[in-house]
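Below is just one:
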Amino acid sequence: MTAGDAEVAGELRSRGLTEVETAPRRLAEYSSDASLYRVRPAVVAFPRSAEDIAVAVEVCRDRQLPVTMRGAGTSLAGNAVGSGVVLDVSRHLNRVRRIDPESQAAIVEPGVVLDDLQRAAAPYGLRFGPDPSTHSRCTIGGMIGNNACGSRALRYGRTADNVVALDVITGTGEFITAGHAAGTAGQSPTLSALFSVVASYLGVIRTEFGRFGRQVSGYSLEHLLPERDFDVARALVGTEGTCAITTKATVRLVRAPSLTVLAVLGYPSLAEAADAVPGLLPLAPVAIEGLDAGIIDLVRTERGGEVPALPAGQGLLMVELAGSSGADLDEAVTSLRAAAGVGRSGGPDCVVADDRRQAAAIWRIREDGAGLVARPAGGRMHYAGWEDSAVPPERLGSYLRELCTLLTRHGLTGLPYGHFGDGCLHIRIDFDFGSPRGTAAFREFLLEAADLATAHGGSMSGEHGDGRARGELLARMYSAEALSAMAAVKAVFDPADVLNPGVIVQPRPLDADLRPVRPHTYHAGLGFRYHRDGGDFGTAVSRCTGVGKCRADLTATGGVMCPSYLATRDEKDSTRARARVLQELVSGAVPGRWRSAEVAESLELCLACKACSADCPTGTDMAAYKAEALYQRYRGRLRPAAHYSLGWLPRWAPLGARSPGLANALLTAPGLRQVAKRVAGIDPRRTLPKLASDTFRDWFAARPAAAEGRRVLLWVDTFTNYFTPRVGIAAVAVLEAAGYLVELSRPGDCCGLTWISTGQLDTARRKLSRSLAGLAPHIVAGTPVVGLEPSCIAAFRGDARELADESVAAVGASVRTLAELLTATPGWRAPDHVRGIRALAQPHCHHHAVMGWGSDATLLAAAGADVQRVGGCCGLAGNFGMERGHFEVSMSVARTALGPALDNAGNVVVLADGFSCRTQLDQLTDRPSYHLAELLAGAAAMGA
């Protein structure tokens, strides 16, 4: 931080902004958005009011310092980064102030997340029309900045078409309520000057602006024409914060369709799918989306995801149709099939997604497109930059063919998708920034691509805006006079050029400010192998492209990422921000590197839940990166107390089990327990789990010899053996009832989980390798191996490949959950007592991330149980919630989804396979919680 930066921060604080930060970690978090660009700000502030924003603008204007607005930071064009003051409105200015069902309008602050607005409008049967794929985290202010559109803009229009009025602050500091201003221009110096500018450029505005729906590049000056009633609000939409800053918006709401249906058409190629679009537009569909089938393949092969039934073909069209009744939908589908030529020779295949879950799964693939295509296995990283061009829909097929030819000529590839009904094409391209000519080749391609889009009457951007990626290209799309008109408008609103300078008007070169897109390599002395990333930690942490899904609340759909961000709503606690700090570490920009305060602060509240490895479209695995950081930080050094107490739990538990009564007494006695917790680094508000009076192994050894059956090896984990033997006892009963002869894994074997989570990776490697070597003969002999603790199975199925000796690492993939084993057992069916049971299930985070909870859901559904699955994390997450300093966040995480679900559940059985989940539930509620094995074993075992 420079002296000047400190002065700016000090002045902002002295004038009433209470949250102003200049810490290196915070600046790293805000140095990038979801684009290729990196611009480190001088100050990051979190305004609480329009007055705070006005103060920031005034301070920046006086000091000639840029001011950049930021919502969720999901910009793919570099619209949300700046070198001066970055104002994040998402933390405080995020209220839906009013829903007016009579006028079908909403008044919102700029930091309102789109999905939150949709939830507020839904009880009135209303919605905001445009819905970009980032709807779960993008803000209305960001949508206004970019003129966002999304899939359903085909029916509802762009953001500009749905804005009624804007309260803004100009670069001069003037407060304006912008709307239809033809009769009120004289009341504002800014609007009066703007009226004169428009009068000077009427001809060029009429001929070059607003030529087709997705012409988003540049300013939308067509709204300022007299015949459009000088609509300043709509004209400001898409100016990317370069003319004025929105402090409040009045937006139009639309009636949500009563019913919708999704039909998917399959074509031999994506270009042929694009050719078919004009013939479908007369049907007035809600959306027509294009998708390269290669993206579907990525979901299947790389992410291990289940893909709904889809038609054959390399190019898919997703067509959403609306109606007020089932008969309407049937008629709409019949019309679609006829218009598309389904059933005729050479016509496309068609699949209709009648089931809502099936349709949602297909939409999820489409919405995750940008992340899914970023890191295909065995190939180069795919980047934004030319990811948002648009042409009139009737030109899309030709444009797509010529763009593919251009890519081939440059030796580049990409998987296209997009809003084909509007002629908007998205594609990430594998630019080789690591080559000597990488940046120059990037520039050459973009210049040629811009000329190609222009030749087809298109726009550089169809919804993402120009930002730093395409501002320079506007000169290839617009005439000199049109560029002058935009510059004149900018000068009226922001004569000092402090509002997001270098964007649209007087743009920065498109190859300036590129962040290090070739990851700095880091191979030496790593704890994990990072096999997906060529053994390079730098490549691994650069998986994060900044799409910001970690800021979304995914709990309603069973997602988990990112529990700490959902608890704190602080960018630093998002997976994205942590990745940014680690990227800075690898590049050498963080003094002290692994042992720096910045890295420690960034990772402190990461629960290591592993959810990001599954929920993030790019597969960012922050749990592994945190373990690596702890490994590097404490190698050869004294560790925190919790690393020895909780991290070494598999060593301490056997010692305590020699005299469990005494151990429990010592850990629960008044005075002693607080001393023990303090010494162990455990939060004093935590209740410690008690050791069982007899271990599971002792019970198993004392029982009568079992009858014959097919052999199964039961993995005995530390938690089941020493703390909850009832789970193991129930599992034995269930397995024997299924016809298995149960044997136990070797005493002393351990998956190494507690050492992994605390970064003690050398010990974890030894433990894990030894255990896998013990399992190997059973796996080779065809004996199934089943585990009960999800985190242990996840260690075998996930961490083993990255950590264990390579000679045995693959063995872990064969370890199964109880549900996986039972659903694959011929003739097995759940006992009758399960039918009709109402249950609330909290899947363990590692279960969700590594194995998936599908087998459990299938088993319970087939058994006739009525199960509500809770999304999100329980908050304990192994050692995290036990450690001193984490209690409040742990409880806040629990209250995100689990707490409300318990409050509203009524009389249900609470299912939780994870020991940590059950431990947290014990502290949250008086209700008992049970493992799946206990449910299947019956009420007697459940009460044991």
The radius of gyration is 29 Å. Residues 25 and 835 are 53 Å apart (CA to CA). Residues 761-780 form the longest helix (20 residues). Residues 645-792+801-814 form one domain.
